[in-house]
Amino acid sequence: MSTTKPGLAGLITGGVVAALLVGCSSTTPSENTDQACASTDAFVAAVNSFTDTLSPGATVDEVQLAREEVQRTFKDLMEEGGDVAEDQREALNKAVGEFQTAIDEVPDDATLSESTAALQEEVARIDVTRDEYVAELDCG
């Protein structure tokens, strides 16, 4: 005759199943790096596209769309990066934050050519910190 209670057995079984499911769904450091590298590639493309819009013929709408893509891909990068290259990730986060601030501080009545120099400086900072992040990830 067993002295264990059915509720306790169910709780233990449930805990074991949950632990196994968590173990099966967790990513390995290699998978985290692969995901971070893929997200980095998308972010690089978005920043390059933004840089391309900083030309005399670009419209404000084109710049805004490029900015939104930088924001979206950066968010993905921060989510996919996990704890991979944490120090470089924080530096990149800071650089992108300063980029966002620079864009927000462009006066509404400024022409695109007037704001281009300041924005190009911010993009250059992103390029440097992004390259350091990529080097830390060793995306190859």
Q: What is the topology?
A:
Blueprint: H1 6-25, H2 29-53, H3 60-81, H4 86-104, H5 112-137
Helix pairs in contact: 2-3, 2-5, 4-5
Structure description:
With 140 residues, the protein is mainly α. Helix content is 80%, strand content 0%. It has 5 helices and no strands. The chain has helices at residues 6-25, 29-53, 60-81, 86-104, 112-137. The longest helix is centred in the C-terminal third of the chain and has 26 residues, at 112-137. The protein starts with 5 loop residues before the first helix and ends with a helix. Mean pLDDT is 74; it is low at 4-26.
Key traits:
single chain, 140 residues, mainly alpha, 0% strand, elongated
In short:
This protein is an all-alpha fold and 140 residues long.
Number of strands: 0
Give the biggest sheet.
Answer: none
**Tertiary shape:** elongated
The computed structural class is mainly alpha
Give helix % range.
over 70%
What distance separates the N and C termini?
62 Å
Rg calculated over all Cα atoms: 22 Å
What is the arithmetic mean of pLDDT? Answer: 74
Low-confidence stretches: 4-26
Q: Helix segment count? A: 5
Order of helices and strands: HHHHH
Beta content = under 5%
